[in-house]
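Q: What does the assembled structure look like for these inputs?
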Amino acid sequence: MRQVRQLIGAVSALAVAGALAGAGVAAAPAGKSLEARFDAAISAQDQLGWLKTMTSEPNHVSSPHDKANAEMMLALFKSWGWDARIDTFQVLYPTPISTTVELVAPEHIPLGGQEPAIPEDDTSGKTANALPPYVAFQGDGDVTADLVYVNYGLPADYEALARRGIDVKGKIAIARYGAGWRGLKPKLAQEHGAVGCIIYSDPAQDGYGASDPYPKGDSRPSTAVQRGSVEDMTTFPGDPLTPGVGATEGAQRLTKETSPVVLKIPVLPMSYGDASKLLSRLGGERVPDNWRGGLPFTYHIGGDGAVKVHLAVKSDWTLKPIYDVIAVMKGAKYPDQWVVRGNHHDGWVFGAQDPLSGNVALMSEAKALGQLAKSGWRPARTIVYASWDAEEPGLIGSTEWAEAHADELKAKAVIYINTDGNHRGTLSAEGSHDFQHLISEVAADVTDPEAKVSVLERLRASTRAGAAEGENVSRAALEAAEKGGDMPLGALGSGSDYSAFLQHLGLPSLNIAYGGEEQSGGEYHSIYDSYYHMTTFDDPGLVYGTVLSKTVGRVVLRIADADTPPQRFGDFATTVGTYLDEVKRLASERREQDAKLAALREAGAFGAASDPLHPVAAPPAKPTTPYFEFAALDNAVATLKRSAGAYDAAFAKHGADLDASRREKLNALLRDVDQLLLDDTGLPFRPWYKNMVYAPGRFTGYGAKTLPGVREAIEERRFDDANAYAGRIAKVLTAYAARLDAARAVVEGK
Amino acid sequence: MRQVRQLIGAVSALAVAGALAGAGVAAAPAGKSLEARFDAAISAQDQLGWLKTMTSEPNHVSSPHDKANAEMMLALFKSWGWDARIDTFQVLYPTPISTTVELVAPEHIPLGGQEPAIPEDDTSGKTANALPPYVAFQGDGDVTADLVYVNYGLPADYEALARRGIDVKGKIAIARYGAGWRGLKPKLAQEHGAVGCIIYSDPAQDGYGASDPYPKGDSRPSTAVQRGSVEDMTTFPGDPLTPGVGATEGAQRLTKETSPVVLKIPVLPMSYGDASKLLSRLGGERVPDNWRGGLPFTYHIGGDGAVKVHLAVKSDWTLKPIYDVIAVMKGAKYPDQWVVRGNHHDGWVFGAQDPLSGNVALMSEAKALGQLAKSGWRPARTIVYASWDAEEPGLIGSTEWAEAHADELKAKAVIYINTDGNHRGTLSAEGSHDFQHLISEVAADVTDPEAKVSVLERLRASTRAGAAEGENVSRAALEAAEKGGDMPLGALGSGSDYSAFLQHLGLPSLNIAYGGEEQSGGEYHSIYDSYYHMTTFDDPGLVYGTVLSKTVGRVVLRIADADTPPQRFGDFATTVGTYLDEVKRLASERREQDAKLAALREAGAFGAASDPLHPVAAPPAKPTTPYFEFAALDNAVATLKRSAGAYDAAFAKHGADLDASRREKLNALLRDVDQLLLDDTGLPFRPWYKNMVYAPGRFTGYGAKTLPGVREAIEERRFDDANAYAGRIAKVLTAYAARLDAARAVVEGK
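A:
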């Protein structure tokens, strides 16, 4: 806390100087010279100093240091001239009272517990206030049972197990991290009758297989454990007790027992050092080839009664307060149009990379915007900077805030812009495709400090070179890179604070980071996600921390100051068109596969092919994928493409010359156009998710599923849903197109 | 030797009984009832007995037991009624006097030496007469130098090293087994300036990554070493001193120093137990992702001077005698048309799977044919059974025999049929495509003992089920399996005794085996390739040994007894057509890649994409692939397809009704038709290889390259060669088509 005060002191002095310098100065010239002044105020030294302070103690939700960080930011934001406050909520957040995991047969080996200190990493021994490895919102319990290796623990893995005559009923499932979101693994284990679940980090992808283990390199050492949340965020994120509403003091609450997003079985995460002691002892059949990880023995499925594990978790389930830091800079021209920008501040332990490397970039931006403001500039729109608490357990800080302020946000917010940690490397941007062109425009104006070309040029070069080297590069990205066109945005799934804004409220959202040159990112959610790890491996000198600030700052400035926010709807329409193509291809591939599989079953081919010494049953029979009612959706996409193209063309021609009244009308029509993608019914099994274009996958978790109502229905063979949601999507897209037509009429003065 | 005598005694008694029973019996009915009688004479107990005896001592070339095995077979063949003899050659075959490999810096660790005994495997301790792990035809020497990991040690790997600023000049290269033939690795290391080479078995594919290490499972344990030959067989196989002629006593000989197929640098193979001690200590850059193996640490390239290895090999380079067992059963009708059938008998140590599991199947066939003969049947054509010596060091026994008998073979042989070890599983057949249909016909008549369907049906089922499970299945095989058509033969490269027959003499050849249900085949070329390993894991009870006998026996019988050998030339023509398509696709893909790469270099994309902390230079500029002169080849293939189709149709119509004179004329025209595929100039850099359709790849070794003169010229950017060989291939195919036209004229009575 001493360092914090010093920093605030130093910053305040600067701020005062800035305020003095800026006093009475007229509004600075907008555009690029403004951005150059913004850039000049971005300092890696600032970021390093804040990061050092904020990572000096564990900063998980409800820890004293997490609160101290919030308070430090509050003071800093204020010192920079922002109208800042802390918004507090009371949320369910379990902290472990005890965690036990041990091998009990064929021999006794205690496992688990806190990660050990590594001498080079001077915070790694500061465990007094640190929580041990655990996963939030597992179910507590005390079980002893057989162990079964379930690969990634996803639906296909349970099918493979069943074909080998193995189940997890009454047993403990051990799954490796990867392929799908963490929380799906224990959820599916529970649904298949397991009494407990262990999730471990396999070294093939997350350890020595990726790079030298820490501290020699940046990958996960054998002692490191990936903590995380297993709240069922695919159903809804945020406080498990208050879906859809803010977790204010007086809010109506579910109980832990009635909340559908809290698991019922005990679950613990595990290091590969510990996991190897379990997996190497498993008997039973050898695993299928693609289940093998990187441990130096032959993987077996187990489940034959030879290996027994004792797993017990007991948690403190009291409500805990969380602290969202909210800073507002009022817009001079459109105060009721908000540009919202956020990053969270809670970590699992020290949280240097995740989330604080992104949070200090956000702080740099806020400081620079403050300096601009003190020098006389004012944004046209209101800018809201937020540093969320409790992202880690389930996007809680942002979700509760979004739910609590839902009406205001739906009435005022223009966009939500998120970051969540950073590494060195190339630009990665995901989000609402009407802002795709803006991102490439911004990226063309930010210089990469390594390659000395724009970050856009570097991304294109890296995409093309990657494809030439045989890396897995998306075709759309490669085509764009080759043509020198705008780089496509990825679709947003979940895993960070944009979810409530995009998928519940329908605000257009962006998520921005740099990365790819870290060798492995093996610090993730471990005690070794520290200042030392971050500044030694992930982004030495926080060079890319400043690049992130300059990138996001430009996005904020350009949206905040534009006469009309820089959206290009043709990009959105084209992208939705490719999603529809994908969904149709999925359906026809499924039909073809279904027919092929039925023929093979009919012919007894699986039986004839099977090795009698290691029998594998035929895949189960499944209902055949039919043809779907896509006509309305086809028409809607065609309409959307026409309307978007026509609007973009009209705006390109007349957009600069609108009078104030038409401008106001136009902006009113466009401000909430993305909210038209919501359908209030929401998605099947999860009405909280209302966006008909973007959602996290029910069986991918973080990974996006676009046109989810149809895509997932086909994947999960809910064929009636596929038809129904094709209609719902058609409806929202048609409304979106109609809004664009109305906007075009305004632009064209009709 | 005691057991051998007992066996011969027992067999002789049986043989006498058989001879008595058959005495005076008239010629048995031909065809299926003959095959049923053949099957009845195939005994797994026989095979187990022979295998036990033959694997009781080390049987490498020049070992007493290898000679004893030959002599035992000689006696057995004679006892079964064959006209048998042993043909001897004097060949260069180095045996190690001393092998040394040790880590000398940063610390001293002795490595290498004989593989240790495993209690379950009762021959694994019999090391008195066993050679230690080594590779034949390395160059001897004594070097101490830095170590560099070169991945598989193939050309692309050296390009990747160069892009990272690393070379192997004056250093020792350590390569993992896999991706290309063993001998290419030290050859390329030597060409790149390395002073020594180590080849090790990585556990990812050949160890615990595949299945449980022996003796728990069948995969390579950490102590096992893959021996082998590094004679440059891609230039020519056989005795290194007598290319093109038999290594008879008086043959003119090169010296070891002047032979182009003996390496100049010392080379040793290594276990992964030993290799991990070297690789785990290497510094320098982290390897590219696809260079990673299965050892539990991060792989580095080394070459930074920190790890030094001492490698020394000294060999006895005297000539050694080898013993080919040759058994002849004279044809009753066409004594000057030979069906040649072989398998080798030398192993690296005990050689149970490789080669003796195939050799005892061959013995079963010979015994059964002998019984048929003693019961009165006589083959129409002469049958020659051969058990080769010295296959392991370089196909020496078969090559010297083929070279010594070249004129007679070219004048008389109808086909060469090879096996070389066996496992349990599905049928695998490769060879000359005019015999493709015969193989499927035979496979339809052999029952799989596990699946209780024909081995053809099982292969189809396994192909279809494999594709459905996402395995890598060739499209041609899948289409054939789905249609219930003939299963395509693979093309023959090298790695067993068919090479001289097919690629030097132009005889049509086949190679047949069962496999795929062994879990890993980790015994390969180690001391653990033993009776215990074979009968515990590879083919318990030698059940598939009997299936192999029944399969190959049918092929032999059907060719030996046919009025005209069962060839179908349309299959060959179609297959050559697909090879030409592949070659053209290769050329256009290369053109496209070349253009893309040039554009990327031009744009500086590799520089912009490169991580400055881990720089990788752009791929080197290469001459652009031009368009080739394919017209003559296109015309030749079209002509071949027409002629083959017309011949097949004519033969189907009239083939059964030919009078003796036309039959004789026809058979004379077809007997050597496959020899027309030879061009006496041979292939570039390797005139010994004269077959213009089938060859082992210069940079794959065992793997086949079809239309090699063109395909490899494109791959290696020898563009003039590509044009020249397109012309040569066109010429041989046109001659082949003309011969078929002549044959059709005979069939049609014109």
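The radius of gyration of chain B is 26 Å.
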